[in-house]
Automatic annotation (TrEMBL):
Keywords tagged on the record: Pyridoxal phosphate, Transferase
GO molecular function: cysteine desulfurase activity; pyridoxal phosphate binding
Aminotransferase class V domain location: 252-621
Gene Ontology terms: biological process: cysteine metabolic process
Transferase is among the record's keywords: yes
Top-rank taxon, per record: Bacteria
Enzyme class of the recorded protein, top EC level: transferase
CDD domains per the UniProt record, alphabetical: SufS_like
Reactions this protein catalyses: (sulfur carrier)-H + L-cysteine = (sulfur carrier)-SH + L-alanine
The protein's name: Cysteine desulfurase
Species the sequence originates in: Rhodopseudomonas palustris
E.C. code: 2.8.1.7
Amino acid sequence: MSTPEPSAPHPASAPLGAPDVDAIARLANALFSALPNGAVPEPGAALGSAPLFAVEPLLNAIPGTPPLTPSLKPNHNPGSASPIPTIGAARPSAPVFALDPKLAAEPPHPAAAPLDLTVPLEATPVALPSASAPAVQPAFARETDLAALPGRLGEVRSFVPPDVAGGGPFGANAAAAAAPLYFLADNPLARPTPVAAPSLAPREAFDLAGLAAQHRPEVHVLDLSGTRPFDAHLFKRDFPILQETVNGRPLVWLDNGATTQKPRCVIDRLVQFYTHENSNIHRAAHTLAARSTDAYEAARDKVRGFINAPSVKDIVFVRGATEAINLVAQAWGRRNVGEGDEIVVSHLEHHANIVPWQQLAAETGARLRVAPVDDHGQILLDEYEKLLGPKTRIVAFTQVSNALGTVTPVAEMTALAHRAGAKVLVDGAQGICHLPVDVQALDVDFYAFSGHKMFAPTGIGVLYGKADVLEAMPPWQGGGNMIADVTFEKTVFQGPPDRFEAGTGNIADAVGLGAAIDYLSRIGMANIAAHEHELLAYGTEQLLTVPGLKLIGTARDKAGILSFGLDGCRSEDVGKALDREGIAVRAGHHCAQPILRRFGLETTVRPSLALYNTHDDIDALVDALRRLQTGRGVKWG
């Protein structure tokens, strides 16, 4: 059967929630055709040779298009030699222009934030200024402009906004974000009146002065043509649920560590799949099966590219990170771990990266060993290295702690484990949504993550495995799709990844995961990391002004988690009281009881950040906590 041509991109896949470019082009063409001769510059003319026209009237004329703010203008750069495309030939890779006489009279403004509705950041040339170049508003670097990122955000080079008062992508907080020191011990603006902290055992106490060394990402200053600065308010509009109200107040979603919300493009992609493509995959000779199979396998390739895996055969679709870890523990572990062998995990782990290894150890007679952490929540690498030896078969640890936000040194820990002859599994459930991930640079043997933590649907996740390791693993489950041939005497199994995908998989949600990857790729994971780190710094400063609040987890390398305890208050009560304010946080043990008990606690309150969170969200949280502490306006549960 011949495979049909791929269907045209759905409007929902347009960059960052932008409207259908073809529809814009048709309207633009009609408008320009009605204008007097000479009003429109010839195709190919330089941008500065004739007035450019505002695109808002065209966009707002298209049904279903979100309203645009006056700041959303086409590029205006008289010094540029960029050509104006032919109207009517617009496509997702070419900008569309319309008329705005006011722009011709406006002088170029170096701090303007032009927005190209169609050109992704990856297409933007980099032009780093010299030391004497005038300050301009920073736009975030492309992911490809960063140094290699072997698992530590601390190794990201160049992400600090220039000291532009009241400007930059961080608005009025740009200057504060660029200050040399911004945590409690070193920033007078963040130094609250001393208050009693939650009781901790002496060994658990930590020195807040250590926060001075907290990593901050920096920002490249780029040629702004064709790029947009990071605007979390703009991205928030892509998420329908963030327009909800809770208890009569606007929803503030700070429970991203539990699950992220879904952008319109992902929701629409699911609707498109069930409306036009729904079928089981691989095994039918009809059009819908071809469409469904193409969409499913295209999503696998998007995952491969997103984490820089060598081949689509290295990408196994599972229900989530938990299933991925269990798959490895059973399929790889039963064959390779025996009595007297050792399995190493860290004190930071989620239960999902503890329990499967405990079960394997109980089954096989192996021993589970635990790498300790210091009082900031950082893995003690010297102690970790001492645990590794000839009996070590596998090391399993998190990339980012879901309870503390600690970013572990994945590449370094992996190299040490490999030196001892052990395999490495990294739980990337909390890392994939915060950091750029390159599994080849990290050199891990397995990498597991869940789609719902990265703006994709629930019930879909990924296990990456090195080709030779997956090839040597037996199947975990038996059934359709994973067999090449069956007789009553024996079964011949497919190769990876089919061998590990028995039965009908979660086809639609895999396609939704592909749409989420498209969305994140247009923004750039390095850009998201920079935004979240600035927000993490701001949130840390502000939370430490709340009387009686103590942050739990102050690692040097940290992602968007802000766990805290509030003196004299139960975490659950804080969570309920914040919910009455429309603020969603997680309150409990976060399925990470060992690490919380390491700090003498059973529960914490855990706000967690994502690309759509803003300073306003942090301010709402901090204001509510202050009122909770003083008893003004908010009642305890």
